Amino acid sequence: MTASAQVIDVSEATFEREVIQASHQTPVVVDFWAPWCGPCRMLGPTLEKVTAEANGRVRLVKVNVDDNPALAMRFNVQGIPAVKAFRDGKVVAEFVGAVGEAQVRQFIRKLAPSVADQSANAAAALLAAHRWAEAEQAYRRLAMNNGAQAAVAVGLAKALVAQGKGREAVEVLATIKDGPELAVAERLRSAANWLATAYDSGNAPAANSTDALFAAAASVAARGDIQGALEGLLAVLRRDKRYRSGEAQRIMLAYFDILGDADPLTRVYRNQLASVLF
Q1: What class does CATH assign to 7-111?
Q2: Which of 9, 25, 52, 81 allows an S-S link to 40, with CB 3.0 to 4.6 Å?
Q3: How far, rounded to the nearest angstrom, does the alpha carbon of residue 17 sit from its chain's CA centroid?
Q4: 31 near 49, Cβ under 8 Å?
Q5: pLDDT tens-digit map of 20-58
Q6: Is 50 noted as a catalytic residue in this protein?
């Protein structure tokens, strides 16, 4: 097989340099194959096509197992085609057989995220770090560059609700009609509507009523005080655990979605919510 800038043939003599050492800079996909292997000839062009589309974010090399039996033995190749991905000198993923293009694409994507994937990961990291304003801007850039995607809309809505920007979150969530994000989007929608329709001074509920507690919690949430909002919602539920057909509970669950399961506030207030409800 002819070597090129994207795909090269590797031998026992060059494996250390071209795979082990090179994988510390860029993920390397190794295709263990043989000229007599029909499935290998089927898989090869697909691997070359998909890795070429990665535009240098991953390298593809090929090892002829007939010419390099020691490499096949070293990496426990028991059937071909066998594809192994190396990162930092170690095998991090692999598959055997002539799989379809969709599976190859998914395999390569995990090794070499696209620019859009990298941007989405960066936005999610900002969200996880509770850097709400920065996360908002990151998700807005994603939405601008990648169109209407439900996962991006959910991320943006989380950042907006966390800051108390209910009306903006309502508009964003209106774009989500179905799909796997719908359940989270519905909980976020409860929180966004709560923030967007908080009572004003001309429509204040009766003092000391459950509605007053609910409105006060919304005012706190609108200032971006999530812990204060959770305290206020618990106070509502202590009065009436079925308040507004579970609306207060749904809003608390939305904030747990925003904070993440591992966040200390989520753990504390999830336990308190359970003690109130059950």
Answers
A1: alpha beta
A2: 81
A3: 34
A4: no
A5: 999 988 899 999 999 999 999 999 999 999 999 888 889
A6: no
